[in-house]
Amino acid sequence: MRTGSSRRLELATLALVASLACAAGCGRDLHANSVPVTPIVFIDGLDGLTGIVAIDGSSTVYPVTEAVAEEYQIATRGSVRVTVGISGTGGGFKKFARGEIDITNASRPILHQEMAACKKNGIKYIELPVCFDALTVAVHPENDWVDTITVEELKKIWEPAAEGKITRWSQVRKGWPDEEIILYGAGTDSGTFDYFTEAIVGEAKASRGDFTASEDDNTLVQGIEGNKYALGYLPVAYYESNKNRLKALKIDQGDGNGVLPTVENVINGSYAPLARPLFIYVSEKSVQRPEVEKIVEFYLANAPALATEVNYIPLPDDAYPLVLKRLKDRTTGTAFGGETDVGASIKELLDRTPVE
């Protein structure tokens, strides 16, 4: 997604260069589809920080967090090391509940069993939405028979009852080719899998099993572009970075109006039900360490620019101060009560009293 990984490896020996780069606005090497980026917002209290911040979890949220980690390390002149892993939302919550990491990336809210695991181990957490994703249903660019697909057709393809039965395009809509549908989707430990199945099938984790699954979204890109009869779903950032290799479908909720996953359609609520907030969860114990608290402040200050850079969609401007207040007030718990809760607005979520 980004091309700055090699810079992070050089931070220890390039402190002076990093300092100059920060003074000039922290210019970054951007991927080919990037838009112009607002200069990095610097916050007080970065001087003198040391330590390691461990982050893991969602591959969907990874591009934003990786961008934040890179810039934070530059801003602290390499004195703070940030590690960012990709074990999926579910895998990240497992590590988080065991106290192995400070922050976990999540592409859906924490679930009941994960809440219970945290409680058992004495892990309290602060739930922080950071940006929006628009799950994108994509096909091969040479697919010339479908531009719009309905939610009901997606359910017909992906529901558990479809396994071994709905196997050809012609079975989904009359006039589509009598060719096998080659399906690609998120791995079962992924928050993307949970959200997509909840939004389309109506129950989280309810899905046919005869599809190629991966927590690595780049694998999904390669699979979909590799077969003319493929169909899959993936985060919008991975589609936008590979839009010359894929074709996004319009989503029709049943009113005959197909809607593409654009910034405008996510913000105005018309890209439903596949628009969703993305999160980081921060350990209350970890956030007592200055290097952890400051990276979260830095994250929220720069999320609008960096989310845009990696092709996600920022929250409304007035949401970020409310999210920051959760951090400052050490407001622990979740606004979702252990459920995915498809379709809730950011304002509604931030108005709720979190539960543990």
Task: Report on the architecture of this protein.
- By secondary structure, the chain is an alpha/beta fold.
- The chain folds into two domains: 5-132 and 278-351, 3-Layer(aba) Sandwich (D-Maltodextrin-Binding Protein, domain 2), CATH 3.40.190; 136-260, D-Maltodextrin-Binding Protein, domain 2 (3-Layer(aba) Sandwich).
- It is built from 13 helices and 14 strands.
- The strands form three sheets. It has a six-stranded mixed beta sheet.
- A hairpin with a 5-residue loop joins strand 11 (250-252) and strand 12.
- The longest helix has 20 residues, at 290-309.
- It starts with a helix and ends in a 5-residue tail after the last helix.
Key structural traits:
single chain, 356 residues, alpha/beta, D-Maltodextrin-Binding Protein, domain 2, 2 domains, five-stranded mixed beta sheet, globular
Short description:
The protein is α/β, with parallel strands linked by helices and 356 residues long. The protein is built from 13 helices and 14 strands.
Write the layout of secondary structure elements.
Elements: H1 5-9, H2 15-23, E1 51-57, H3 62-75, E2 80-84, H4 88-97, E3 103-106, H5 112-120, E4 125-134, E5 136-139, E6 148-150, H6 151-158, E7 182-186, H7 191-201, E8 212-214, H8 217-225, E9 230-234, H9 236-240, E10 247-248, E11 250-252, E12 258-259, H10 263-267, E13 275-283, H11 290-309, E14 313-314, H12 319-328, H13 346-351
Parallel strand pairs: 1-2, 1-3, 6-11, 7-8, 7-9
Antiparallel strand pairs: 3-13, 4-13, 4-14, 5-9, 5-10, 11-12
